Amino acid sequence: MSAAVESTGPDARTVLGRVRAHLSPGLALVYGMNGAGAVESCGDGARIVLSDGRSALDFGSYAVTLLGRGHPEVLRAVRGELESMPVSTRVLANGTTAGFAAELVAYTDPGRLTRVWLGLNGSDAVEAALKLARLATGRTRVVAVEGAYHGKSLGALAATWNRRYRQSLEPLLGGVVHIPADPGAVPGAFAEEDVAAVIVEPVQGEGGVRALPSAFLAALTAAARAHGAYVIADEIQTGLRRCGERALSVAAGLRPDAVLFGKALGGGVQPLSAVVATEELYGPLATDPFVHTTTFSGHPLAAAAGSAALRAVEELAPRGERLSGLMAEGLRRIAHRHTGLVTEVRGQGLLWGVEFGPHGAAGDVLLELSRRGLVVSPCLGQPEVIRLLPPLVATDEEVEEALDLLDATCAAVPDEFRSAARNASDDGSAPRDRLPEDGALTGPAGGPGTGAEGPATARHTASGASVPGPCRVR
Ligand SMILES: Cc1ncc(COP(=O)(O)O)c(C=O)c1O
């Protein structure tokens, strides 16, 4: 099916030029390569449409678009709020925000996690939870896990494992130790009695889609409890049915003192994160609500989106189970067909990682996938792994299409594109070795003028769906 897209925005070259001039030259380079010179225009369901009329399946977006793009109930809720009270006075109570807090409490671990602090980014939630733990205990030490990713703001960064993001900023928040995900390493972390909290992702998403062993999680949480330290479950990526459960830590009976949500919580429409905590951990904020505030905490537009998102996620949960099965089966098939190139596939629910053996192959595959019509995410802490994050709204056919694209791309490694890809850029001038060495920003080029945008991309056309906003699919 062919379709044309009319965009009323600036052309792609202008957009990329502005990114290069005013945001980041490195990002301009990467965006240009990923889009083969095009930029994102609009999206609908599991698909996005690019400025040159191509469409792509969005199985990436760093786990934000769990409900796809433009979920109608989320849009309806946000539009309603937009017309009434889009920002709060912050000196009066807001019904939408209070209602969402009550819904989130009922959703997560009713009766136990009864308090909510709202932020916009995942790292906001991490900061708030770490501050609460320190205030509530009067202690300073935090135990985190090797491979962890908890964000890049200064406090959260101290709990993030990857030295690449940390080393030039040290000393960071003091007292954070990282231990291996091994039950044997747990007692040593509590040798000193001043641990305020442990912070842990049940599945490390940015760390390469690694599920932490249940024996380790049990040992860590038991030791925390025995030593009077709080357990913070960072489910910013795994929660809200991304991994099948509302919160993996709650479902596993770990009884966390706080569950952190983010990413998909705003329904793929608004930025939103949350700390859902026990009365005890939340105590310092109950005593003094000004001990941790931000201007947009509890933003009504985001809260409206969050309420609609919780309902939508639950309605679609059975669909997630089916799609998870398709992903598991398809990825295993692909791993089998491309042994050597693909060294492992792992994941659960709608969070899947594909690990590549040859150095640099993951970046090459990620770029080629986006040129062929499948957007996936890299792993910020594990450059040899790409993440596939299908939305709950994907059809069976869209999942099969994504798996076929991955299969075909793996079959094309390395001959078809690797050499051409190494030297191109968004404007054909910057070599690959000028790229930042970030997992998110590596990969070969395939920009305009490389000739790479021909047959591989032509077979992916717009979905034909009616897309609201500044561009229309005809
Ligand atoms: C588990 C986890 N925690 C925290 C964060 C930080 O979230 P944000 O980038 O929204 O600040 C992320 C982001 O990837 C994450 O995956």
UniProtKB/TrEMBL annotation:
CDD domains: OAT_like. Transmembrane segments: none annotated. It comes from the Bacteria. GO terms for molecular function: identical protein binding; pyridoxal phosphate binding; transaminase activity. Keywords: Aminotransferase, Pyridoxal phosphate, Transferase. It comes from Streptomyces tubercidicus. This is Aminotransferase. Gene3D superfamilies: Aspartate Aminotransferase, domain 1, Type I PLP-dependent aspartate aminotransferase-like (Major domain). The keyword Transferase applies. It holds the Pfam family Aminotran_3. Belongs to the class-III pyridoxal-phosphate-dependent aminotransferase family. The keyword Transferase applies. Its cofactor is pyridoxal 5'-phosphate. Residues 421-474 are annotated as: Disordered. InterPro entries: Aminotrans_3, Aminotrans_3_PPA_site, Class-III_PLP-dep_AT, PyrdxlP-dep_Trfase, PyrdxlP-dep_Trfase_major, PyrdxlP-dep_Trfase_small.
